[in-house]
Amino acid sequence: MEKIIFHIDVNSAFLSWEAVYRLAHCGEQLDLREAVSAVGGDTSLRHGIILAKSIPAKKYGIRTGEAIWQAKEKCPGLILVPPNYGLYERCSAAFMDILREYSDVVEQYSIDEAFIDMSASCHLFGTKEEAARQIRERIREELGFTVNIGISSNKLLAKMASDFRKPDRVHTLYPDEIQRKMWPLPVSELFFVGRATAKKLFSMGIRTIGELAVADPAWLKEILKKQGEVIWAFANGIDLSPVSAIPAANKGYGNSTTIPFDVEDVPMAKKVLLALSETLGERLRADKVSVSVVAVGIRYADLSYISHQKKLENPTNLTLELYRTACLLFEQLWDNRPIRHLGVHTNGAGGENFCRQMDLFDTTDYGKLAKIDRTVDCIRGQYGKDAVLRAGFLKQPVDHMCGGYPL
Prior knowledge:
Layout: E1 5-10, H1 13-25, E2 37-40, E3 50-53, H2 55-58, H3 68-74, E4 79-81, H4 85-99, E5 106-110, E6 113-117, H5 128-143, E7 147-152, H6 155-162, E8 170-172, H7 178-182, H8 195-203, H9 209-213, H10 217-224, H11 226-235, E9 254-263, H12 266-286, E10 289-300, E11 305-316, H13 319-333, E12 339-347, E13 350-351, H14 366-383
Parallel strand pairs: 2-4, 7-8
Antiparallel strand pairs: 1-6, 1-7, 2-3, 5-6, 9-12, 10-11, 10-12, 10-13
Helix pairs in contact: 4-5, 10-11, 12-13
């Protein structure tokens, strides 16, 4: 059977979803997609980066991920709107629902993109290009936003194809089209080649994907290690990874937050760590997993970063146990400099049914803590996250469940 893989990518997702919602439900006349506009974080909370931009904004050199003040310098008239993550989750779900009507093998790659294996179902909708156009038109007509669709025989080439000219396009990149369509592109546009790798490749005299494709793979491996092999294969259109409808189980969970003010004392830092542990513990219990490694990361006011981790004697998903470990790691790490950003991260996730190793000197009632956590999760699930909070967060400048997407 011929392999037929589609990669579908929403054009300027957050901005498109904002535009469609405001036009359809808020009575706005201005289409953000046609203006010099962007979705950006709250500068008062120091989440001041560009999350998505319009095509007109791109002409001013505004880039996703750059600071809002930098974007404003490039275009003082930039229209900036705050993010609405709850809306984006709903738009993403509706987008995926349409894709699943065309194949039962849909892999959601991110909130705004997916791969579809159309090998077994494409013939039901016409040619490959006709099926892609039908999907593209249905999304535009039913949901109001546009997508790019790349078609090929594997995931890598389909993804590269969807990044060709935008918006609202269908592109192909079959193996016999690689030399003509992909090889002339700058090597920085190849999937898995980041800025640091691109800079290194430039210094090696490799500036296009084609030059990378004909380079000696052994030489690339010697300089770039495993990544050298991978990007050489990608440059030659080689990718054996299957489209998987079942997402791989998480091995690690994390949560972090940029604090609206510089934290300069231990009690306030620990409040932030507790708030992060609250959200993190709830996610672990919702997925019925426990973790065996906890790490804490600190980003200082000067943007330098440091982290440290600890392997637990017993896996856990208990909020207080996560918090106590995070506090221990924080005390080992912190050097008294002002803190801008804190994170609690975990690894070694596995099933929550395990036998806890008993300790004669530990009098903690873990069963009781587990019951408390489950009860609080249930109440918050039914009445909202603010239905129950610890007294220590009353009249405090820190949200009692911070980090992650504020839905």
